[in-house]
Amino acid sequence: MAKEKIFVVDDEQDILELVEFILYKENYRVSCFDSGESILKAVKQDRPDLVLLDLMLPGVDGFDVCKIIKNDDNLKDVPVIMLTAKGEEADVVSGLEIGADDYIVKPFSSRVLTARVKAMLRRNSKTPTNEDDIININDIVIHPGRHEVTINGKPIDLTYSEFRLLQLLAQKPGWVYSRYQIVDALRGSDYPVTERAIDVQIVGLRKKLGRQGKYIETVRGVGYRYRDGE
């Protein structure tokens, strides 16, 4: 039985062949592209389940490709994993801020690549399609309609911004959100959210969640994520 469809974009032929070989062994359907222009044309005609995207492409680079995909209503839910040879914080943060969902630093092993791809596809399949869906994770129940959070049935008193922050992180377990992305999601006309305020909110939220606060992890130099399970 055919698995998910993955588009791989890299201008280095040896990398394309390696990734294609690794993913074919896992029975994924793979299409390879060597430029930003070619992938953008392809995604309009054939929607993939995941895109592996090199950032340093000639012409239309990976940043622009990711931005275009994430700004398209028909494609914005397609997960994008960045492939970067640099692995520098600035590149990772920039990619996440424009919507990329994860990153892999070159060189990478076949085990790392397949593990990250499987994890991303699994998370994406579990992602709530409506932000009002009830989230039940690690003994925490988040009920957006009631604006209510309980841990093992006990109500937890959260501010509006703390509630939105927890909902944002918990609805996509394992996904890393930069501070900029969090600010953008929480910003409202009646609440002046700043990147520094996010760090303060995280500290307060962890304290209110008690033992479950450990699931909110700091990704150094990038932002925060919610871990599903021990």
What this model shows, in words?
The protein is of the alpha/beta class. The protein folds into two domains: 5-126, Response regulator (Rossmann fold); 135-226, Orthogonal Bundle (Arc Repressor Mutant, subunit A), CATH 1.10.10. Helices cover 40% and strands 20% of the residues. The protein has eight helices and twelve strands. It has helices spanning 13-25, 36-45, 62-70, 89-97, 110-126, 160-170, 179-186, 195-209, and strands at residues 5-9, 29-33, 50-54, 80-84, 102-105, 135-137, 140-143, 148-151, 154-155, 177-178, 216-219, 223-226. The strands form three sheets. The chain has a five-stranded parallel β-sheet, with helices on both faces. Strand 1, helix 1 and strand 2 (29-33) form a beta-alpha-beta unit. Helix 2 packs parallel to helix 3 (62-70) and helix 6 packs across helix 8 (195-209). The chain is elongated, with a radius of gyration of 19 Å. The two termini are 32 Å apart.
Topology:
Layout: E1 5-9, H1 13-25, E2 29-33, H2 36-45, E3 50-54, H3 62-70, E4 80-84, H4 89-97, E5 102-105, H5 110-126, E6 135-137, E7 140-143, E8 148-151, E9 154-155, H6 160-170, E10 177-178, H7 179-186, H8 195-209, E11 216-219, E12 223-226
Parallel strand pairs: 1-2, 1-3, 3-4, 4-5
Antiparallel strand pairs: 6-7, 7-8, 8-9, 10-12, 11-12
